Amino acid sequence: MRQLSFMLTNVGILITGPGVIMNAILGAFSQGKIKNANPKIVISSDKANAKVLKDASAKYGVKTAVIEYAGKRIPDDLFPDEVISNNEKISWKSNQHIQKELEDRWENYDKEIARVLQEHDVTPENGLVCLAEYRLLLSNKLVHLYKNRIMNIHPSLLPSFPGWRDTIKNTLDYGVKITGVTAHLVSDVLDAGPTIAQVPVPIFDDDDVGTLRKRMVVEACKLYPYCINLFASRRLVIEGDRTCGMEWKEGLKGDHDAWSYTNYLI
Length: 266
Prior knowledge:
This protein is of the alpha/beta class. The protein is built from six helices and twelve strands. The protein has a domain at 2-152 and 183-193 and 221-243: Rossmann fold (3-Layer(aba) Sandwich), CATH 3.40.50.170. The protein has helices at residues 20-30, 50-60, 99-119, 140-145, 167-174, 209-232, and strands at 2-3, 9-15, 37-44, 63-66, 83-85, 90-92, 127-131, 150-154, 178-185, 195-202, 237-239, 242-244. It is globular, with a radius of gyration of 18 Å.
């Protein structure tokens, strides 16, 4: 069993989306909900996020940067979206089609991401990189450089519905009744890194992609800061492909047999 050992965590946030989850993370820092950590830098892959970054800098005093991806973009139809297992190793069905592109991603983009992170003291030794609505695949070199120090949040209860192409739509189309959000550490297999915590979100008969996404984002904005705090407080233990450290409600007093999700359904 190995416990992450460091005193203070420096956090870097990567975004491509509108910054909703980023603001939730920075807000949790400003409210003192995340201990033993400092937000150091927010990096956007899109200059269209200039106002989002400016507002975050003004409100929270965090440094920001835009690093636009100038390399070859992986076509949407090659994004991994189907997971298969041979009982020994989980792999992505379309993974073989994008290996060269992922290698190029390091030279054309991720190497600069790593440089800026470390320039702001978010290092492989003391840092945590948070993907907050980040929609670019990471190169294996960046994942290995920050091994077990890159966190992501995904709009499903992994390992169900991995990938990001139409994830919420696929969940609705499949007809499941409960979905959720999953916080996990990033590995070199997409959405298959160690799970940190999950929160269920019910699906109602009148839900569409928009209404379901809205409720899931609300839960993600609460779960992500919790998991960052878990990591920074050295309460997250990694055992192989598993993590330990999630505490359920204090009122259960360790009586696991007393816990039931249906206790909270009214």
